[in-house]
Amino acid sequence: MSARIAVLVFPGTNSEDETFRILRDCGGDVHLVHWSHAQTLPTFDAYVLPGGFAYEDRIRAGAIAAHDAMMDHVIAGAQAGKLVLGICNGAQILLEAGLVPGTAAIRRPTAAFTGNGPVPHFVCTHVYVKLAIDPARCAMTAGLGHDPLIPAWTANGEGRLAASKEHLQELEDGDHIAFVYAHEDGSVDDSASPNQSALGIAGLCNREGNVLALMPHPERDAWTLNHPDRRRGAAMLAPSGGAVFFRSFVGALQ
Amino acid sequence: MRGCSNRAAHPGHRLADVAVALRPDELARIRERLGREPTLVELHAFDAQWSEHCSYKSSRHLLKKLPTTGTAVVLGPAEDSGILHLGEWNGERYGIVIAHESHNHPSQVVPFEGAATGIGGIVRDVLCMGAHVIAVADPLRFGTIDDPHSHQRYVAQGVVDGISAYGNAIGVPNIAGDCYFDSRFDDNCLVNVVSMGIVKESEIIHSYAPRRADGWDIVLVGKATDPSGFGGASFSSLTLDAQDEDSNKGAVQVPDPFLKSVIMRASYRVFAYLRELGVAVGFKDLGAGGIMGCSAEIVSAGGYGAKIDLEAVNVAIEGMRPEVIAVGETQERLLWVVPPAVTPELLRIYNEEFTLPEIAYNARATTIGTVTAEKRYVLRYHDQTVMDVEIDFLTGSIRDDLPFTEPTVPAATAERPLVTGVQLDELIERVLAHGDVCSREPLYRRYDSVVRGCTVIPRGAGDAGVLAPVPGSSLGVALAVAGNPRMSHIDVRLAAEHAVYEAVRKVAATGARAIGLTDCLNFGNPRKIEHYNDLVAAIDGLARAAGRFNSPFVSGNVSLYNESANGRAIPASPIVSCVGAFNDIATVVTMPLKSAGSVLYLIGTPQLALGGSVLLDVLGRSDEHLPRIDYDATIAQHDLMYAAAQARLFRSAHAIGNGGLITAICEMAFAAMRKGRASIGAQIHDAWQWTHGSVGDLEAYFGEAGGFLVEVAADDVEAFEGLADDVTGVHEIGVTIERPVLVVDDQAFDLHRLHSIWNTPLREVYP
Question: What is the value of ipTM here, to two decimals?
Answer without folding.
Answer: 0.97
